[in-house]
Specification:
There is one protein chain. The protein contains eight helices and seven strands. The protein is α/β, with parallel strands linked by helices. It has one domain: P-loop containing nucleotide triphosphate hydrolases (Rossmann fold, 3-Layer(aba) Sandwich). Strands 3-4-2-6-7 form a five-stranded parallel beta sheet, with helices on both faces. The longest helix is centred in the middle third of the chain and has 25 residues, at 78-102.
Length: 221
């Protein structure tokens, strides 16, 4: 398995330098990320924050075309897959995320660069370091203020997804287990920038842990 790589805080400019802040939700397919994005958005909006909810891939018109291609298209090489995801992120950051941060918004994204490092770096065995460097170039070194990893076992994720799967969801459980372990390794490498939550808990319990951590950033009272 590819050695985990979480990147260096010194090499990347934090979103905290902008007026807004960026929270990324990561985890395996079926983990419940979208639910937690929605719950945090509601909490922040109730507190008077302007919130932008987005996703990768697919957070821009170009990104939606790339999403359809990479998740629902025909067979493609692992390197082509990694480059498509990088293109989606480059457009997404330039067109959506940076303008929102500059406007002082709270940006919540369902997946960000760590997904590519885990899926293509570890799952596709392309090398976590190489994929991380590609991703950082694509997003011009913008890293989240907080990354929430919603952790569930591979078999639980498959159970939740049901019978319909896209190209990546259809991969075997060992692929998804490698991805899960890599997310956990990245989080362990930088606990100050990550929060790992047990995705098998009730959504309200997970939300409480996420809100507590966001509050510690000083952006929610």
């Amino acid at each position: 398995m590819t050695e985990p790589y979480a990147g260096s805080l010194a090499e990347a400019s934090s979103a905290a330098a902008a007026e807004g802040f960026l929270v990324a939700f990561e985890g395996g397919d079926g983990a419940g990320k979208s639910t937690q994005v929605r719950l945090l958005a509601a909490t922040l909006e109730a507190a008077g924050r302007q919130v932008l909810v987005t996703r990768q891939p697919g957070g821009t018109p170009l990104g939606q075309q790339l999403r359809d291609l990479v998740l629902h298209g025909g067979p493609m090489s692992a390197r082509a897959e990694a480059l498509i995801f990088a293109a989606d992120k480059a457009q997404h950051v330039d067109a959506v995320i940076r303008p929102a941060l500059a406007a002082g918004q709270a940006v919540l994204t369902d997946r960000y660069t760590d997904s590519s490092v885990a899926y293509q770096g570890a799952g596709r065995s392309l090398g976590a370091v190489e994929v991380h460097e590609l991703q950082m170039w694509a997003v011009d070194h913008l890293v989240p203020d907080l990354t929430v990893v919603v952790d569930v076992p591979a078999d639980e994720g498959r159970r939740r997804r049901g019978a319909v799967h896209d190209r990546l969801e259809a991969e075997a459980d060992d692929f998804h287990d490698a991805i899960r372990q890599h997310f956990l390794a990245m989080a362990a490498g930088h606990p100050d920038r990550y929060l790992v939550v047990d995705g098998t808990l009730a959504p309200e319990q997970i939300q409480a842990a996420v809100v507590d951590r966001v509050r510690s950033l000083g952006v929610l009272r």
